[in-house]
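Standup notes
- DV: blocked on the single-chain target, sequence here:
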Amino acid sequence: MKIGFVSLGCPKNLVDGEVMLGYARDAGHEITPDAQDADVLVVNTCAFIDRAKQESIDAILEMAQQKRDGKCSRLVVTGCLAERYRDELRKEIPEIDAVLGTGEVPEILGAIAPSATPLTFYTKAPGTLPTYIYDADTPRVLTTPRHFAYVKIAEGCDYTCAFCIIPTLRGEYRSRTRESVVAEARALAGRGVKELLLISQDTTFYGIDRQERGALAKLLRELNAIDGIEWIRLLYLYPTTITDDVLAAMAECEKVCRYVDLPLQHASADVLKRMRRPGNRKTYDALLARIRERVPGVTLRTTFIVGFPGETEAEFAELEGFVRDTGFDHIGVFTYSHEEGTRAHAVADDVHAAVKRRRRDRIMKLQQGIVAARQAARVGTDVAVLIDGPSAEHELVVQGRLEGQAPDIDPVVYLTDCDPTEYRAGQVITARVVGARGYDLLAAPVGPSN
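- DV (later): unblocked, structure below
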C-alpha cells in the first residue's frame, strides 16, 4: 500500500513524522511523495499559533479533496492539531478516517490499515497527558537531507509560560537515556549523517527530570567522540538551565557548534512576568555575557514575542533597546497569537494587530542594520562551510552554512566561483567571505574539504 505523508510544524513534529514513516516502511508499505498516487494520506499537523493551525487545516482540506477526487481511500490526521482538536476535526471534516495525537505515534499502523474502522483511534482518555517518546530502536525514515538529522533527546515540557499550549499537547518533560541517544547518533553516523541537531522543548533541561546531574554535558562529550559526525548543534535552550558545564563542553568539544539558540521572548521585566517567564534585562545581560565569556566566538540566536497582552510602548522600547545593545546574530520575531487553552487567553488581547505588526517590523529593521555591520566585518575572513548542496534558487549555485547557521531557520552561505560538481552535501570546506546578499553571505572556496 502506498502512503503519502505531509508533515508541518517544528523539527520535533518532523521527528514524530519520520518515526511514523519508519513504522509504515517496516510493515511493508511504500512511501510516495505524490499525493495523487497514495492509497492512504497522512497529515502530521502543528497547532502552536493561529498561522500554524491555519496551514494545518488547509493541508487537511487539500488532502480531503485528494481523497474525494483521487485513488486515496483513507485520510489520517496526526500531530498537535489532532491532539488539541480531535473531536472538532472529526465533526467538521468527515473525510478524516482516523485521528492520532502526539502520544499515539506507534498506532499509525492501525490507523492506516485498510481494514480499520473509521474514527476509532481515540485511545487517550480525556484529561490525560501524552507519555510517548521514541528510542534508538524505533524505526525511522529520515526526511531531511541525508547529511543532517534531528535527534529528539526529550519530549514534553514542565514550564507554564502563559502564551504556550505545548505542555498540554506534549505532556510532562521526559528525557531519553543517554545510552539511547548515543546509540541513535552512532546509527545516524553510520548512515552518513554529518550534523546532529539536538532538540526538545528545553534541551538544557535534559536529564534533570531523571535526577541526572550534568547529563547534557556528558551527552555532548560522548557524542563528540563518534566517528563520522562533524557538527553537533543544540537547539531550544532555556535561560535558567544553561549551566557552566554545558558551556564548557561547547567550548572544549571540537564538534559541538558554538551556537546558542535561546528563545528569550522579551526583555521587559513586567512583560516577562505576565508571560510567566523568568528573568529581566539585568539577568539576561549577565547570562549573555557569561555565555560569550565561556564560549568565545559564540553565535547567539533568539526569538521574541511582540504584542503580548498589556505590552505598552515603553515596554516595547525596552525590548528594542535590548536588541540594539546586545547585537544578536539571528533573531525571529513573532506577533502574539491569542490561543485558547493558554493562561494568557483569560486576559484581553488588547494590542491591536496593526500595532503588533509595526513592532515586529521595527525590531526586524533594527536587526537588519546589526546584521549588515557584522557581515561587512566578515568580508575577507576565512570560514568553515558545511555544504548543503545545490541552491534551490539555481542548480549551478552551491549552498552551505557556517557553524553559526542552523538549517531552515538561519541565513545561508552561497559559494561563488566554483564548479558545483566538485562538492557534495555534508562536505566541510574552507571559504573566504567576499560579500553579502541580504542576510546571506557570499563566499569563494579557498581550501579542500576536511
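- Follow-up: The first strand starts at residue 2 and ends at 7.
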